[in-house]
From TrEMBL:
CDD domains: DPS. Transmembrane segments: none annotated. Belongs to the Dps family. GO terms for molecular function: ferric iron binding. Pfam families: Ferritin. InterPro entries: DPS_DNA-bd, Ferritin-like, Ferritin-like_SF, Ferritin_DPS_dom. Residues 17-155 form the Ferritin/DPS domain. This is DNA starvation/stationary phase protection protein.
């Protein structure tokens, strides 16, 4: 049995490019937001949160790079300015004065927002016959589900 794709090999649909660019925007905003949290977290859980935030911004940075390179590989164009990212991102910048627990809650909520959007991107990718992008988004979804659970579990 052969599977037909709706896009030419080495390309993807406009809808997939838009969905991936939305996640690039979310990841770009999160990368800066998590650095903010890493630098400004205070309190009795400073050390583990400082370390966790570093782990998260490194993870987000890797995901951002992977998605941008995927778009380039399929003849798409990743957005690459903060102005563009802020315009389409679902997640918002850090307010700048959050307490440690609010930082954790906000990141978990951001991850859950992205998880829902990733599911939509996976579906669009499958419909376009772009199974590689669908697989990448599925891996990201699994990782963000794990991280949201870990953040939620750290709260009292």
């Amino acid at each position: 049995m052969t599977t037909t794709t709706k896009t030419k090999p080495g390309t993807t649909s406009k809808a997939v490019i838009e969905a991936v660019n939305k996640q690039i925007a979310n990841l770009g905003v999160l990368y800066i937001k998590i650095h903010n949290y890493h630098w400004f977290v205070k309190g009795k859980h400073f050390i583990p949160l400082h370390q966790k935030f570093q782990e998260l911004y490194e993870l987000v940075g890797e995901q951002l790079d992977e998605l941008a390179e995927r778009l380039l590989a399929v003849q798409g164009a990743p957005i690459a300015t903060m102005k563009e990212m802020l315009a389409i991102a679902s997640v918002k910048e850090a307010a700048g004065h959050e307490g440690a627990d609010d930082m954790v809650r906000t990141l978990a909520a951001d991850f859950r927002t992205m998880i829902g959007e990733l599911r939509e991107g996976i579906e669009l990718s499958e419909e376009a016959g772009d199974h590689t992008t669908a697989d990448m988004l599925t891996g990201m979804q699994a990782e963000l589900e794990k991280q949201a659970w870990m953040l939620d579990s750290s709260l009292d």
